[in-house]
Amino acid sequence: MACDKKFVTLPQCSSKWLGICSWLVLVGACGSDGDAMAEGSSGGSTSAASGDSSATTATTTASTTASTTASSTTAADSSGGASSSDGGESSSTGGVPEGATQENLRVAFFGDHGLGPDSVASLQLVLAEDADFLVILGDYDYDDNPTAWHEQLDEGLGTDFPVFAVAGNHDEAEWDGYRQVLMDRLTPIAGADCEGEIGIQMGCKYRGLDMVLSGVGTMDPPGDVSHEDFITSELASSDAIWKVCGWHKNQHDMQTGDKGNEVGWGAYQACQAAGAIIATGHEHSYERTYTLTDLGNHDGGHGAIGEPEVMQVGPGSTYVFVSGLGGVGIRDFDPVHADDTWWATVFTSDYYVDNGDEVPEFTVEIGVTFIDFYVDGDPYKARGYFKTLAGDVIDEYEIHAAH
């Protein structure tokens, strides 16, 4: 899969980038000489694959409770050591910068969960990989059964494992029930600072990671503020090094199946402007883009740049991943996307491309996306991977945040 630019390091350059003089510049064509910024990934595991708004008051109360419970807590809490963002020592930098996450923070992501053995197994994989918390990207069980889904979460994760979530289209009919499940999971999370309408328009900071959890494309805003304006406002007020935007649905270009344009580019562009990673579900497959700098510009390949295994995030730059393999099967690749130039990795029932290289034989299996933040002693470095229930690591890559 071809690309036309690559990142190289210029240590002497100013700390601002993407539009000013930067610590990164874009030069040359793929395969040109010069040192690339990052080495190969070493992410999660070992083997490659072979094969409604009427209850706003109650919701706000629940989220405020979670915030009040430990709003004075720094990134450390009772479930694991963390680096405070106010100046603790760091082995590689001599000090932890403002806005850093907990060191080696591991976050799990999946959507399109369902009920059944595979859905439980996805939750168990989250625990087996020692994730610190889970973000569910909508479509909880497909049976309109909040009670059964709540019981499944307890079975797979235990009753106190931290879970955050966004609403999916299959959650709308029984949203009041699902909202209560999410409130019950959110309220006890020590250190979670969350405000807004749960699952629809909420900003959360937990262990140093800022998350904007949105129902854009799926649920109407709970008040007078549009989803796009909420996203923009939340991200503008963030001082975090690492930020994540999460919602359920997609734009057609931001998935490799037959989904249409269901979100609008405004939400994507707001997250790109702030350098926030974009996580979605809805399409039952896994895919990840190159670094993108011009979301919404189809003819320009959405500004895809860099190497497939190295993501760069910062003002004006992001990447998008779809993690829709939480438990209800995997769909085919739609050939209409054969000419898309912005995909680094694609994993569907009948097509697998790993960091630009097609893999002819592979095992079809559902799985979970994981991102490790603040790795190798560097608060500006992260590492992502997608792992299946069979234990295959389908995708591995590094992420570097601007500073």
Report on this structure:
β6 (193-197) and β7 form a beta hairpin. The protein is of the alpha/beta class. The longest helix has 15 residues, at 56-70. The strands form four sheets. It has a ten-stranded mixed sheet. The chain starts with 5 loop residues before the first strand and ends with a strand. The protein has six helices and 21 strands. The model is unreliable at 1-93 (pLDDT under 50). α1 (56-70) packs parallel to α4, α2 runs parallel beside α3 and α5 runs parallel beside α6.
Short description:
18% of the residues lie in helices and 25% in strands. The chain has helices at 56-70, 117-128, 146-157, 175-186, 227-236, 265-274; strands at 6-9, 24-27, 105-110, 133-136, 163-165, 193-197, 201-206, 209-214, 243-246, 277-280, 286-289, 291-292, 304-305, 310-313, 320-323, 343-347, 352-354, 357-358, 367-375, 378-388, 393-401.
